[in-house]
Predict the structure.
Amino acid sequence: MKRPASSVLGGCLVLFLLYELSVVFFAYTGDAYVTSDTVTLAAEIEGPIATLDVRDNQVVAKGAPLFTIDPTPYRLAVDESAAALANAEATLALSRDRLTASQADLASAQASETAARETYNRVSSLARSDFASGQAIDDTTRDLATAAARAAAAAADVDVARQTIAVNAASVQQAQATLNRARYELGKTAVVAPDAGRVAPFTARVGDYLQVGNQVLTLVTDNRRRVVANLSERHLARLRPGQRVWLTLGSQPWVVHAGRVTSIAPGVARSPTAPLTLPYVDPTTDWVRLPRRFPVDIALDTWPADLGFYLGADARVLVVF
């Protein structure tokens, strides 16, 4: 009875040693999947969906129309803002004309004051020699004071006109900003494909009212088609970008494809509540706790044209060190 038990234990030990030796040269995982860059299109303005220009699984080119939000209220906002801008510009032009007129009045008033002062000085000189009457002195004094007051009032009008221009110029800037905002929002009523790809199935329908941030559909792009393999942390010391990879895809389980490691995640989240910018790989499978696994990006040497692309499909990966 002891000999069979020893044989079993010896066989297990040999298998364990072979496994430990194999991980020096190979890394294998069935926890891998197909992915690429995806773009989720959401409403940047609110309103009902006016048109849906695509259907589920449709192939679209970059710039192709996807959906539109009713543009009517946004066109009206543009028209209203454009009218407000035109009114503000007209008011600014009038205030500039007023400044020109005020400056002309000031020049005239200053010339009158200069003439009145010269007359006053001449009469005062004559009065000191008894060649001018007291009445003449009074008249020239009054005329100088009147001219000086008029010049001061004209200068004040010029200051007011300049301040009015500053206020009206700010109103023009504000109206222009409002118009720019209205045009921006109008432009957001038509949503186009940011890149080529396929439209994932969606549930949005014409007439659905969208709030800002409501997701409408997802575009699976053709950019960075790759396989992500979650490899055990025990392999990290030997993993390098460029290493040869052999893999099978769930859509072609009996066909082996060649690829290479393109990148290795520098870190993972320790819990699902950690920062969402870090990938989280669940360390448990059913009741077995697994070593920490890190996402490794793998690019196929060529993606066969007849293979198709299925985001999220399973894959099995063998990395050769």
Notes: Residues 5 and 11 are 10 Å apart (CA to CA). The mean pLDDT is 84. The longest strand covers residues 252-264.
